[in-house]
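Try this one yourself first.
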């Protein structure tokens, strides 16, 4: 038996084998094996992607004069659409800032912002239950990083005092 097959069987035995489920998407609901459920795993926290009234209003206002309903890829890889620049300028104007940079997800924001704001001399202390995307961004930053026990501010204080002397 080859190594990959052994690893897959081991994952299956540990209930760790993952596969993409067949789901029917209906707005904020999903159906799996004839069971309709509220989709609590979506990144569409505000329900904007599944809001039919918003979609109709958008299409009425813009018709076909927009690039796509999704960025589909990183702007660094596939380039920019003028509508993105327009939106960033509008956001900057509304918040009275020099400029704005929008990310297509919280994950991408954490990957982009944390390395940009830190140096190898920075210290990040994070709650043990911080989102995995924060950990990914912190790792990319290559700064000193320690986690404290969940909601344990005494542990945070001790780490801060201990690590502050070293940085």
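Now uncover the answer:
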């Amino acid at each position: 038996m080859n190594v990959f097959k052994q690893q897959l069987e081991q994952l299956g035995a540990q209930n760790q084998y993952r596969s993409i489920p067949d789901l029917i998407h209906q707005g904020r609901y999903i159906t799996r094996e004839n069971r309709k459920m509220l989709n609590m795993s979506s990144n569409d926290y505000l329900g904007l992607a599944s809001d039919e009234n918003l979609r109709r209003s958008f299409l009425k206002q813009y018709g076909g004069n927009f690039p796509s309903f999704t960025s589909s890829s990183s702007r660094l890889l596939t380039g920019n659409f003028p509508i993105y620049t327009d939106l960033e300028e509008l956001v900057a104007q509304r918040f009275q800032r020099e400029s704005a940079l929008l990310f297509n997800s919280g994950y991408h924001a954490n990957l982009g912002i944390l390395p940009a704001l830190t140096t190898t001399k920075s210290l990040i202390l994070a709650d043990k239950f911080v989102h995995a995307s924060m950990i990914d961004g912190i790792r990319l930053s290559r700064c000193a990083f320690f986690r404290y026990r969940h909601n344990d501010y005494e542990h945070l204080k001790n780490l801060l005092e201990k690590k502050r002397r070293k940085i």
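Discussion: The two ends are 51 Å apart (CA to CA). The helical segments are 3-13, 52-62, 75-78, 82-94, 106-117, 132-141, 153-164.
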